[in-house]
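Hi R.,

As promised on Friday, here is the backbone we talked about, encoded as structure tokens. Could you run it through your design pipeline when you get a chance and send me back a sequence?
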């Protein structure tokens, strides 16, 4: 039964069920069996034939895990790049942005807030937001959010753009709600995007990791078709290597995970020329060398103290390689950094991020946890480990980490007041 449901979900939404963890489909099945009061065979007959039940099954499988200004560096870059793009557009032509999957709305609203704060007028920005989940879109359209949507200590945007309600939730201002157009849709459905005008900026983060390689390439082709030649595509940290293999060029801005075409032409109508032949990079899911993935942590006393500048230079090199999607080189640099300079929270954070991107869930968790052992308040390690646990069905573990992150942000705010 599980195998049949996995194949059905692969057909419907391109989902590679292995990326969710072993129990995710089983939990969704139990939920739908209880809701429909059917046994497994009767439920399969319903799910295989009923579009309504297929939508309900997708809702049971999809786990929204997002918050406002996730990957904040990307929104800083968004503002500067949006100004540059605006300067190349005809006067009065609004910038066009796409957010998918938009989940419960935190990302497209973050885009709108970032652009308003950067001086853009609402009528100068057109934001389309798509998601396969109608339930998530209904939540987004209501624009009311609980504390879990606000993480970290940089929450001044909440005072500018939200109204606190009597029940403790926050409702986003109407001017922002009016900037976003919501639509249900599946990226893999060619008809969903085919009739749309192209976009200046596209956010598609942490979706491709749930597809197998052929489906990833199909989805990327769709995204490239709707991206203007000089536009930018923002992805999740675990997806950067795939875009580099496709010939897109990473912007040299840490943690932004933004890409443009390698040779952007001068006019939007022109298409980029084919990239010259180069040796094919290792596939995204190729396991790193055993020495890189499994090297034990040496005791601190066994490593001579390194000069802080040398340590920082090595970490900066790892970050640059990772942001450029040079996955194998970055993993080797992690092993080299450990040999030369010993363990550090920042090293293990990047190592975890790289393993995360390669689909090596267990290794990613180990490295994130090592980062938190060395630096319990490492916010990015907390956030990424929480997202990883949530994506693989450990909601209680993710909730504990999210609570730590929230408490840490509250403590930081209090200590600065």
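Update: got your reply. Pasting your designed sequence below so it's all in one thread:
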């Amino acid at each position: 039964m599980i195998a049949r449901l996995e194949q059905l979900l692969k057909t419907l939404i391109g989902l590679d069920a292995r990326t969710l963890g072993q129990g995710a489909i089983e939990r969704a099945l139990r939920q739908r069996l209880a809701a429909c009061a059917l046994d497994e065979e009767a439920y399969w007959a319903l799910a295989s034939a009923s579009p309504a039940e297929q939508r309900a099954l997708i809702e049971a499988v999809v786990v929204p895990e997002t918050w406002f200004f996730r990957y904040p560096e990307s929104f800083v870059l968004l503002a500067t790049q949006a100004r540059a793009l605006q300067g190349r557009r005809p006067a009065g032509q609004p910038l066009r942005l796409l957010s998918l999957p938009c989940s419960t709305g935190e990302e497209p609203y973050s885009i709108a807030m970032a652009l308003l704060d950067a001086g853009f007028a609402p009528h100068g920005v057109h934001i389309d937001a798509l998601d396969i989940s109608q339930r998530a879109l209904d939540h987004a359209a209501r624009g009311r959010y609980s504390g879990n949507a606000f993480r970290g200590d940089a929450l001044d945007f909440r005072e500018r753009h939200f109204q606190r309600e009597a029940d403790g939730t926050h409702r986003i201002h109407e001017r922002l709600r009016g900037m976003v157009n919501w639509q249900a849709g599946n990226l893999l459905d060619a008809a969903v995007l085919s009739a749309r005008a192209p976009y200046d900026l596209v956010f598609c983060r942490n979706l491709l990791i749930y597809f197998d390689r052929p489906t990833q390439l199909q989805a990327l082709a769709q995204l490239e078709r709707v991206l203007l030649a000089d536009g930018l595509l923002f992805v999740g940290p675990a997806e950067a290597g795939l875009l580099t293999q496709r010939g897109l060029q990473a912007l040299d801005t840490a943690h932004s995970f933004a890409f443009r075409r390698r040779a952007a032409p001068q006019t939007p109508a022109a298409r980029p020329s084919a990239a010259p032949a180069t040796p094919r990079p290792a596939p995204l899911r190729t396991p790193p060398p055993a020495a890189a993935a499994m090297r034990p942590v040496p005791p601190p006393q066994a490593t001579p103290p390194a000069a802080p500048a040398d340590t920082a230079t090595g970490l900066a090199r790892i970050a640059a390689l990772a942001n450029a999607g040079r996955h194998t080189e970055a993993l080797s640099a992690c092993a080299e950094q450990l040999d030369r300079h010993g363990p550090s929270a920042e090293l293990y954070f990047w190592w975890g991020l790289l393993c995360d991107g390669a689909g090596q869930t267990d290794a990613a968790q180990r490295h994130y946890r090592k980062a938190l052992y060395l630096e319990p308040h490492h916010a990015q390690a907390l956030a990424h480990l929480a997202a990883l646990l949530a994506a693989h069905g450990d909601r209680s573990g993710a909730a504990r980490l999210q609570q730590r992150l929230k408490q840490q942000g509250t403590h930081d705010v209090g200590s600065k007041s």
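One thing I noticed while checking it: The CA atoms of residues 217 and 246 lie 9 Å apart.

Thanks again,
M.
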